[in-house]
Amino acid sequence: MSDENIYIKNKKAYFEYHVLDEYVAGLQLLGTEIKSIRQGKANINDAFCTFIGSQLYVRNLHISEYS
Q1: How does pLDDT run across 17-51, given as a tens digit for each residue?
Q2: Which residue, 21, 23, 26, is CA-closest to 7?
Q3: What confidence score (pLDDT) does residue 53 get?
Q4: C-alpha neighbours within 13 Å on the C-beta side of residue 29
């Protein structure tokens, strides 16, 4: 297992929105999703998080199919 951490941040969101709170969270991903992200095939431009009950969910995050 690699000790490499991948951090993705939507810098554009800070210019378009007033950010009230910040949360640090991890995602549970499959192996193919991790490989796609490492290849730069993830799009977070329209992504946002929302609480459903006590859990935080990511919406509109697109990870392309690994090839």
Answers
A1: 888 888 777 888 888 988 998 888 988 888 888 89
A2: 26
A3: 94
A4: 20
15 phi and psi, to 5 degrees? Answer: -90, -30
Strands 62-63 and 42-43: antiparallel
Q: Evaluate whether 44 touches 8 at the Cβ level (below 8 Å).
A: yes
Q: pLDDT band at residue 3, thresholds of 50, 70 and 90?
A: low
Q: What are phi and psi of 10, to 5 degrees?
A: -90, 90
| CA distance linking residue 10 with residue 34, whole number of Å | 18
B/e letters for 37-66, b = 16+ CB within 10 Å, e = fewer, are beeeebebeeeeeeeeeeeeeeeebebeee
